[in-house]
């Protein structure tokens, strides 16, 4: 707080003197505060719902279905949101998504991954495609005997760059599997990069699809 007050004092002084040195000092102070906040945020593993959204924390018995649980043609009762968990887990990944937990009207707990900086509309379309494939497999007599199906999970876009993904327990991400493989065999990232360079000297200029191929 003291640093912010000092920066504000420099801004007020600049309005009187028009001395650029005051604005430079203010920006340097603001940047130091930003670095401190960024360091603290990077170390967070949990957030309090009271600080993030007090309204969601205190809401009870909402007339809103648990995301992904409502199907128009189903005879089952609609599972609504009873309340939200007071704690939000922060996932240690690039965009640091949050795990949001809610209690349904059926007494069960539901977990969702709250993702930002990403458009989930394509993910939603993929899940719809998988659902269509499952319907075709159910109608195919031979496939039905083998119980063939694709595991689907709810994807709910909330905006153009955020959304909810149903949390699937007891699963590993592709990133974690690759990381475990590297660590178990002591494979360094530089080795993979050198292999890529041996196949294509200008691999940095390739598109993502070309790199995968």
UniProtKB/TrEMBL annotation:
High-level lineage: Eukaryota, Sar, Alveolata, Dinophyceae, Noctilucales
PANTHER family per UniProt: ATAXIA TELANGIECTASIA MUTATED ATM -RELATED, SERINE_THREONINE-PROTEIN KINASE MTOR
Stored Pfam families: FRB_dom (PF08771), PI3_PI4_kinase (PF00454)
GO biological process, one term: TOR signaling
InterPro entries: DDR_Repair_Kinase (IPR050517), FRB_dom (IPR009076), Kinase-like_dom_sf (IPR011009), PI3/4_kinase_cat_dom (IPR000403)
All residue ranges annotated as the PI3K/PI4K catalytic domain in the record: 84-213
Protein name: PI3K/PI4K catalytic domain-containing protein
One GO CC annotation: nucleus
Any one GO MF annotation of this record: protein-containing complex binding
């Amino acid at each position: 707080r003291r640093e912010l007050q000092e920066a504000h004092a420099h801004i007020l002084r600049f309005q009187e003197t028009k001395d650029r040195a005051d604005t430079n000092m203010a920006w340097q102070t603001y940047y130091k505060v930003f670095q401190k906040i960024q360091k603290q945020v990077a170390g967070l593993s949990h957030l309090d719902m009271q600080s993030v959204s007090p309204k969601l924390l205190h809401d009870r018995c909402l007339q809103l279905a648990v995301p992904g649980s409502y199907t128009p043609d189903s005879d089952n009762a609609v599972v609504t949101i009873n309340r939200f968990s007071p704690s939000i887990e922060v996932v240690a990944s690039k965009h640091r998504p949050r795990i949001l937990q809610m209690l349904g009207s059926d007494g069960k707990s539901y977990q969702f991954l709250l993702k930002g900086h990403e458009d989930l509309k394509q993910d939603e379309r993929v899940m719809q495609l998988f659902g269509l494939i499952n319907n075709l497999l159910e109608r195919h007599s031979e496939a039905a005997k083998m119980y063939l199906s694709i595991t689907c999970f709810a994807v709910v876009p909330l905006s153009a760059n955020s959304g909810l993904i149903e949390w699937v327990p007891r699963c590993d991400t592709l990133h974690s599997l690759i990381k475990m493989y590297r660590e178990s065999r002591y494979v360094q990232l530089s080795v993979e990069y050198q292999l890529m360079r041996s196949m294509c000297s200008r691999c940095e200029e390739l598109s993502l699809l070309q790199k995968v191929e």
